[in-house]
Design a protein that fits this description.
The complex is a heterodimer of chains A (about 425) and B (about 240). By secondary structure, chain A is an alpha/beta fold. Chain A contains 14 helices and 17 strands. Helices cover about 25% and strands about 30% of the residues of chain B. The chains are: A alpha/beta (about 425), B alpha/beta (about 240).
Chain lengths: ~425, ~240
């Protein structure tokens, strides 16, 4: 990207906006000290109340990457930040997943001198956040069913993405060509880098988003039987454990982060890094060193048991997470809540196949443990219901255990284990 | 109904219609629970999952249709009308259980992606359109006493309103939630039954699952209470979670 060095972002801020960021920042620090989360959202909310167009003002003069999609936002944001960090410039980022307007405001306000920002954005809010920030790069990971009680149908979401990207000719889009909904959403953008990042979950994309007919699939390739919609030609490819770059060179990924989904995130991060002129090897080295992301994949020692914490929020996420579980006989604890951020409908539990958990110790926890228990019973997976992670550890008597939880259940477990997790 | 499987208790044939198009909100749960509750009683089960590029067999016992977004719903209706298998099966007395988008499809007409009228299968004389507001949340409803099914608990998430013709009875009366939009929830006529309930519906309402199984297999023996304990606890928890 050939942008000349931008002016100091804060020098252009009106007095009221500077006050808004200062007051917001103070509130955030107070919230952190009070032990209420990482404090970023409350600061952003207060700032926005004082200055409604604060995000637009804070974004001015910076080079901004937005990262959105159903799964992998936080991790990919982290990987891109690591890769761009090799340029030696300060980068603003909402690294802890506060991905609506207030979270973006807080991230930018926290780093007034950063000339670059890598921001994860909630799928639903992406169009508005793109308009407010005028981001140079938008990264589209995937789209699948998630929290359907409060999210719009995902086809409607894709349609909104498509409209806003069509109206942003200067924006560079990095998009997953293997997800038909994402490909269609980016289909009218002027400049797209297509990445074959894979799609493990197909059950939300059997219909052509363009015409409603049946999509035909052959491996990763797909096309519509009735309209010209088809998988676009790709320049980056995830092929098993390797990445193929636009020159056709294939190299192993060798990530510390586990699983196919993270290899997918890494290839997309490499494609973003290229846009900013970061060399492949340089970007790769930085990406490879990321070992945990906002508590995900973290190892915690608890009563002599090495716990690994995994977060997954929806069927596609659980499918990928079950893939990365340590092999039996390592026990597994599953925890599910159904608070507002999780989605209040637990029906999605039935979209996941748990049969591969048969034959190992499984513990069931969370506010909706009965839903999960009934689900496992139907898949003939033996389990024990527990009230806490400690109870599971005591019953398991195992040197290690994987803990897989959805959003608020994960946060509750982290709170119990301490903020180090 | 001839099943031609030789000796022993004849298997119940479950047909899951178009899981590629009509399966959101855990619709697989309805299939799994029917299979489980049959097997716990020693009744064998055969399962056919029929995608939208396959023919719907006419010799099934229970046909299941799930929910779906607008585009898949319209495509599914088009394919089911063209194929004719499901209508033929219903004509010969098979059980049909349809949820949300599937419920609208088995009616005579529903609203497509832009609100345009789309022809359904007409298995039930009912029409669905778009309501004023989206019904989202826990729903409870008391079932038509003629069916002998306990209070329904489920989760609804739809903007549909459904109006019945004179031959079609409401499945239930709403206590909490939206349902059809007129104080009733779901509909049935003969052995064809539709509902807006997810949860999934047959998971949270085992007596509704048994109603469908009983329509095929006759009087059902009881299930070992230990096999029912968890789901009854889940039912109690969900019913207690609803205000009022």
């Amino acid at each position: 990207m050939s942008t000349s060095s931008p002016p100091d972002p804060r020098s252009g801020l009106p007095l009221r906006a500077r006050l808004a960021t200062t007051v917001g920042g103070a509130a955030g620090r107070a919230s952190r000290l009070a032990g209420r989360g990482d404090g970023s959202v409350i600061g952003g909310i207060i700032g926005l109340r004082l200055q409604p167009d604060l995000l637009c003002l804070l974004a001015r003069g910076r080079r901004i990457v937005l990262v959105t999609g159903t799964n992998g936002k936080t991790t990919t944001t982290r990987l891109i930040t690591a890769a761009l960090g090799t340029l030696g410039q300060q980068i603003a980022s909402n690294a802890f997943g506060a991905n609506m307007e207030a979270g973006l405001v807080a991230a930018l306000a926290r780093a007034p001198d950063a000339t670059m920002a890598v921001l994860e954005v909630d799928e639903k809010h992406m169009p508005a956040m793109l308009q407010a920030t005028g981001a140079q790069v938008v990264t589209l990971l995937n789209l699948s069913r998630d929290q359907m009680d409060r999210a719009a149908e995902i086809w409607l979401l894709a349609r909104r993405w498509r409209a806003v990207l069509a109206a942003a000719p200067d924006c560079r889009v990095i998009a997953n060509a293997d997800d038909p909904l994402v490909a269609w959403a980016a289909g009218q953008a002027r400049r797209v880098t297509w990445v074959a990042a894979g799609q493990r979950w197909h059950d939300d994309s059997w219909c052509c988003p363009n015409c409603g007919s049946h999509l035909r699939r052959d491996g990763d390739d797909w096309h519509c039987g009735e309209c010209p919609n088809r998988r676009p030609p790709v320049s980056w490819v995830l092929a098993g454990d390797e990445v193929i770059d636009p020159t056709g060179r294939s190299r192993p990924l060798d990530l510390l982060l586990p699983g196919r989904a993270n290899r997918s995130n890494a290839v997309i991060a490499l494609a973003v890094a290229e846009v900013f002129g970061v060399g492949f090897t340089q970007a790769m080295n930085a990406i490879q060193q990321v070992r945990s992301v906002a508590g995900r994949y973290t190892h915690v020692e608890r009563r002599g048991c090495d716990l690994r914490l995994l977060l997954a929020k929806n069927p596609a996420g659980w499918l990928e997470a079950l893939d990365v579980l340590a092999p039996a006989p390592v026990p597994v604890m599953l925890a599910v809540n159904a608070q507002v951020p999780d989605g209040k409908d637990t029906s999605w539990l039935w979209d996941v196949d748990y049969r591969r958990l048969r034959g190992r110790q499984v513990f069931v926890a969370g506010e909706r443990k009965l839903d999960l228990a009934v689900r496992l019973e139907a898949d003939e997976v033996a389990f024990r219901i527990v009230g806490s992670v400690d109870e599971a550890v005591d019953l398991a008597r195992s040197p290690s255990m994987d803990v897989l939880a959805n959003y608020t259940a994960f946060q509750q477990i982290r709170a119990v284990l301490g903020r180090t997790a | 109904m001839e099943r031609g499987l030789g000796s022993g208790p004849s298997a119940i044939r479950l047909v899951w219609v178009y899981p590629d198009l009509l399966s959101t909100y855990g619709d697989r749960g309805n299939l799994l629970v029917l299979a489980r509750r049959a097997r716990l009683r020693g009744i064998p089960v055969e399962i056919a999952e029929v995608n939208s590029d396959q023919r719907v067999p006419v010799d099934g016992d229970i046909y299941l249709l799930g929910g779906g977004e607008d585009l898949p719903q319209v495509l599914a209706a088009r394919r089911l009308r063209a194929g004719g298998g499901l209508s033929a099966a219903a004509d010969r007395g098979a059980v049909v259980f349809a949820v949300c988008a599937g419920y609208q499809i088995i009616g005579t007409e529903f609203g497509g992606a832009e609100g345009e009228p789309v022809a359904g299968l007409g298995l039930l004389d009912l029409r669905s359109g778009r309501g004023q507001r989206r019904g989202v949340g826990e729903i409870t409803a008391d079932v038509d006493p003629a069916l002998g099914v306990e209070r329904l608990t489920g989760f609804e998430n739809h903007q549909g309103t459904t109006v019945r013709g004179p031959e079609v009875k409401p499945l239930a009366t709403v206590l909490t939630g939206v349902g059809n939009g007129d104080g009733t929830e779901g509909a049935y006529s003969g052995r064809v039954l539709g509902t807006y309930l997810h949860g999934p519906a047959l998971v949270r309402n085992p007596s509704l699952a048994d109603l469908l199984l009983g329509w095929v297999a006759g009087p059902l023996p009881p299930i070992d209470p230990r096999q029912e304990e968890l789901v009854l606890n889940l039912r109690r928890e969900r019913l207690a979670a609803v205000p009022g």
